[in-house]
Amino acid sequence: xxxxxxxxxxxxxxxxxxxxxxxxxxxxxxxxxxxxxxxxxxxxxxxxxxxxxxxxxxxxxxxxxxxxxxxxxxxxxxxxxxxxxxxxxxxxxxxxxxxxxxxxxxxxxxxxxxxxxxxxxxxxxxxxxxxxxxxxxxxxxxxxxxxxxxxxxxxxxxxxxxxxxxxxxxxxxxxxxxxxxxxxxxxxxxxxxxxxxxxxxxxxxxxxxxxxxxxxxxxxxxxxxxxxxxxxxxxxxxxxxxxxxxxxxxxxxxxxxxxxxxxxxxxxxxxxxxxxxxxxxxxxxxxxxxxxxxxxxxxxxxxxxxxxxxxxxxxxxxxxx
Length: 321
What we know:
It is a single chain. The protein is of the alpha/beta class and 321 residues long. The protein has 2 domains: 28-122 and 248-316, 3-Layer(aba) Sandwich (D-Maltodextrin-Binding Protein, domain 2); 123-239, 3-Layer(aba) Sandwich (D-Maltodextrin-Binding Protein, domain 2), CATH 3.40.190. The protein contains 13 helices and 10 strands. Strands 1, 2, 3, 4, 5, 6, 7, 8, 9 and 10 form a 10-stranded mixed sheet that branches. The model is unreliable at 1-13 and 15-20 (pLDDT under 50).
């Protein structure tokens, strides 16, 4: 190492943190998506990343690190250097569901990650196979109550967000329906389309095309407002089940000790991305919706989600080792 380089590094080390990171970002940023390629989290990240890169003036490279319902990818970011160059594009599983149901997590999301902000979400949608003799939520509930233990519901995996959302509906409607876990959302949809299961609560963004094509019947949206993409489908609240609110949502986070000015730069860049009409148009096309929450509102939203899913997990006896 040359004397000049040693001197420069010594000067940087002597600077206060804000000054040391004044040039951030100086190289490409890695955006870790903790769920599989092609799923809602990956889709949302790949829409978001180019716009973030444009605002930061550096490449944003997506790395899918899958495993254990997003635990592997999340932990890889927790253990990364807190320099702003490895970020988590996490999901509701990362931030709220896993901490609510998993006993042996080796990290604490609240303490070991620093939230930059929430990015986008897709409401959950209750759909059924077309051959099921029910065309409304009321008819579906009546059918299930007339045949306790006979109807089945799919999930993308035991202990995941979709499983908990289904248990929330099951509890609020007072139903005895049987859980059939699949290895991912894709196989679960195929099980529904083939008639192997009766109903499925899933991301609207990945279900809407099958509804529009008449391959599945939509019963209700699990969100306070109707979806603009399925404006004729009522919300659970409209049908008397205001507690049935669920979605798959995504946020940007950094390791906990990431400098405040780096997090502030990322947050400012996110705000500019959200203001882009082109970005908003891409979200709408994919069935995703944009969050518009302050940092305080985002933290409150995550806490509410954690508390809700922890309570649902306890009442349903769901726990993952």
